[in-house]
Amino acid sequence: MRSKVTVVLLFLNVVLFFYIYKVDRPMIDARQLLEASHQVLPPEIASMDSFSRTSRTGETVKISKVGDAWWLTAPYDWPANPNAVSLIHNELQFLKNVTSFAVADLAKSGQTLADYGLADPVYTVEFTAAKKSYRLLIGDDTKTGNRLYVLSPDGTRIHVVSRSLAESVSLALADLRASSIFTIPVFEVRSLTIQTAAPSNLKVRLRRDTTAHWGFESPIKARAAKAAVEPTINALNALQAKSFVPRDTDLDRSGLTNPVLRVTLEGNARRETLLLGNVTATAGEYYAKIEDKAVVFTTVVPAPLLTVLRSSQEELRDAHVTDFDPATVTSLTIAVPGQPELSLQKLETTAANAATGQPAQSSTKDSDDKDYWQVVVRAPGQAPVIAYPADADLLDELLKKIRLLEARKFLSDAPSAADTEKSGFNRPEREITLGLNTGGGPSEKDPSTQVLQIGVSPDQPGKAFARLTNPTFVYEILPDIIEETPATALHYRKRLLRKLPDDALITSLAVVDLVTGKPVYAQKLKEGDKNWDAALAIEPEPVRKPIAGILAQLRQLRAQQFTAGTFSPDHADTPQGPHPWRYRIDYTIAFNGGGAAQSTPASLLLTDRLGGKTQLAGSADFGGVLFSITQKLLDALFPLTYSGPNDPGPVTSAPAATAPNAATTAPATTTPPTTAPTVPAATPAAAVSNPAATPVEPATKP
Length: 702
Prior knowledge:
The chain is α+β, with helices and mostly antiparallel strands. The chain folds into 5 domains: 1-37; 43-61 and 81-164, Dna Ligase, domain 1; 191-315, Dna Ligase, domain 1, CATH 3.30.1490; 326-357 and 366-490, Immunoglobulin-like (Sandwich); 496-687, no CATH class. Helix content is 21%, strand content 32%. The protein is built from 15 helices and 37 strands. The chain has a 9-stranded antiparallel beta sheet. The protein has a 9-stranded antiparallel beta sheet with strand order 13-12-11-10-15-16-17-18-14, with helices on one face. A 9-stranded antiparallel beta sheet has the order 22-21-20-19-24-25-26-27-23, with no helix packed on it. Helix 14 (541-555) packs antiparallel against helix 15. The longest helix is centred in the first third of the chain and has 36 residues, at 2-37. The N and C termini lie far apart (110 Å).
């Protein structure tokens, strides 16, 4: 049974293949031939490389392909509009007839080519493709329908085709030419040359290297600003020919014999040069021509572009004094006259681990994902001394500021000895040496260090000058960088003094007024409490938020800035003289969730608030430090510690039942006094401990 089915299926397949081969295939071939019979031009038209159009009046337009671009070659040389050429090409390539008839049959009906407008055609179209020439005559419109007559290239048939052929072929000259003057796009441009007329006759040449950096090749070797050069090239590409002037235009009169500006763009194996002549009768409009073309035209040059072209040596120059990648900096040395040299060094992995006591890591990053830096002081005639870890955030900002240091003016590219002395470089106010691990800059041939000098002149207050030791261009800059780069080791010290691990817990907190000897706040967690939520929940709102803020800041104790390298338990040293300590924060830290045996006491001494943003703190911990606290800690302490003759009094009242032994008010937040009150203030409401927690005895030692 299965064999019979198989034989039947094979027989049916044979019948199907026979039908396709003998019956259907001839029908397909016939349809293809019929379709091909409507094509007016041969398939070679797809590779068309030249085109010309001659009108009945004798006006001729010629377009040729040069490389990958189309150019008008008659009536003048000019870039062709690629969209217009594509429209004509497509119309010719897909030109089909509605019907056609043989020229040989015209005599039978007593007609000639003249009856169809083909003896004196409206347009004669000639084109070349695949190294062959073709000629197509376009005659009159048909009497009915939107169609016209054309004579085939071999002259044997008249075709009736759509009138869209005439509409594309008859495009006006203004539509056939490109409006832009330059044809090299910005991404292809490899060099830009700008030359001004006499008497300056200055020639400025810029070139783009393989890393896309732009640089001056003449008249000096210097960096160019990519953010200025490429917009300038785009502005040049946006220039358009406004009108074309007669061929007999006097080049001397139009200023094109000795052009005001000569601008050249060089691309991939091609270059284009624009000559800019005199101003026309219209302001902002200039006579112009392409250097190797005869046609003269006018163009409107925007005033900003003209300014850049005339002053390109400064306008296109990179205003940054230095050129390096901040990530490649491994050391930073700051020298100030009369002070020990200060060095900041980025540590390698092993050195960083040894300096911080951390286990081996795969990178030189600290717990804040910052690079390890250290402050090194070099006294004359002495070995360098490692002072302490440096603040990575501060150094990141400083390196960015040095990298972004910009010239206000380019003063001299070849300074004389007098210029050097006048700018203060004989004894520079700052000498900053950058050590780079890759050479920095755009090229590996650059030196591995960059030395930046900042000079000031007593004769020019408010001004500062900068230069690199190589090259020695002199720039005028803002003097802010001098304040940003003090040779003071404390300025660069790491601001983060302590960061408690996640499993550490502050178990007690007391803020003590040293004048009265009484705590303004004292609290201790109950046994078993793992956080301060329960203790803070029953505090009055004016107290709850400040205490939470203090606890958060103590977990990550950070200095706003360091004010002295020594610490005294009796007073804080300020520029105005010694200032007594006014408050003390006592707190206990339990590590790893341990009990009292694993707890560590800590304390922090505080002055009065010395200004709107200044309150000093000191501690014997961390090697003994004196610093100004952060704004967050200052704001958190303010409601607890502020009192005095300007205190506006209570702002809230708490029910007596909730805290029978506590005062019911909390001090308001207003501007603090700049000096300590002469009379001891009463203990504010927040000073009374929470009845739900155990009071803390204030420490007896500072």
